[in-house]
Amino acid sequence: MSPLGRRLARWLPALLILVGIVFDVVTPDRYTASPFFSAAPLVAAPLYSLRNTALCALAALFGELWSALVNDTQDANLSATEVSTVFVVALLALGINRVVRLSDARLASVRDVSEAAQRAVLPTPPERIGGLAVAARYVGAQADARIGGDLYAVQETPHGVRLIVGDVRGKGLEAVEAAVIVIGAFREAAEQEATLEAVAGRLERALQREGRRREGLDQYEGFTTAVLAEIPSGERAVLRVLNRGHPPPLLLNPDGGLRTLVPAVHALPLGMSEVAGWPDRADELFFPAGSVLLLFTDGLTEARNRAGEFYDPVARLRGRVFPGPDQLLDTLVAEVAVHTGGAGADDMALLAVQRPLGE
Question: Residue 69: which residues within 8 A CB-CB, separation 6 or more?
Answer without folding.
Answer: none
